[in-house]
Design brief:
It is a single chain. By secondary structure, the chain is mainly beta. It has a single domain, classed as Immunoglobulin-like (Sandwich). The protein contains two helices and eleven strands. Strands 1, 2, 3, 4 and 9 form a five-stranded antiparallel beta sheet that branches. Strands 7-6-10-11 form a four-stranded antiparallel beta sheet, with no helix packed on it. Strand 2 and strand 3 form a beta hairpin. The longest helix has 12 residues. The radius of gyration is 23 Å and the shape is globular. InterPro entries: DUF4352. It holds the Pfam family DUF4352. This is DUF4352 domain-containing protein. Keywords: Signal.
Length: 180
């Protein structure tokens, strides 16, 4: 077979020709985006429209916040907050190529007075939310974080920790995501 015929056959099999234009990007960043269906916010939840923030190889998007819940209802129990509960809906995505050991109990709610609050263990258990898990490569997981904070405290930010990385083996740095 002649070289010109071989080249023509390869181009036909590849489904393109030397004169085909390059594909047009579908977004301004030249990378296409997923079109996800909108979901209805839960009662008393305020959707958050904040930019994604990266900590290590984990990307965080705060989806919604439910403020000042006086009590929670689980499948087998109702119980009151010592102060008030705040529920924050979080989507975490591992943008790396390896697994990330993720701990929801490390995610801190920061209030205006500078105090930090850990997720409330009984609330997380009653509402059946995860505590520690492996976030696989390119895996996205949504979950709720529940905090029991004083009634007069005002949340300012969520300090997120995305798991150990080569540059932060202790996962001690974290990234603040302002709630406004």
């Amino acid at each position: 077979m002649r070289p010109a015929l071989i080249v023509a056959a390869i181009l036909m099999l590849a489904g393109c020709s030397p004169s085909d234009p390059a594909p047009t990007p579908t977004t301004t960043s030249s990378r296409p985006t997923y079109e996800l269906s909108p979901r209805t916010a839960r009662p008393d939840e305020t959707p958050l429209k904040l930019p994604a923030k990266q900590d290590g190889e984990t990307e965080f998007v705060l989806v919604g916040i439910t403020p000042k819940l006086p009590s929670l209802t689980g499948s087998h129990i109702d119980f009151d907050a010592k102060g008030v509960f705040y529920r924050i809906r979080v989507a975490a995505t591992n943008t790396g190529r390896t697994n990330v050991d993720f701990d929801t109990r490390k995610q801190l709610l920061v209030t205006q007075d500078g105090a930090t609050h850990v997720p409330d263990d009984p609330a997380m258990t009653v509402k059946r939310q995860p505590d520690q898990f492996v976030l696989g490569a390119n895996v996205r997981l949504e979950f709720d974080l529940y905090y029991d904070i004083p009634k007069d405290a005002q949340p300012k930010a969520l300090k997120v920790f995305g798991g150990k990385t080569l540059t932060d083996q202790d996962d001690a740095t974290g990234t603040d995501i302002p709630l406004t």
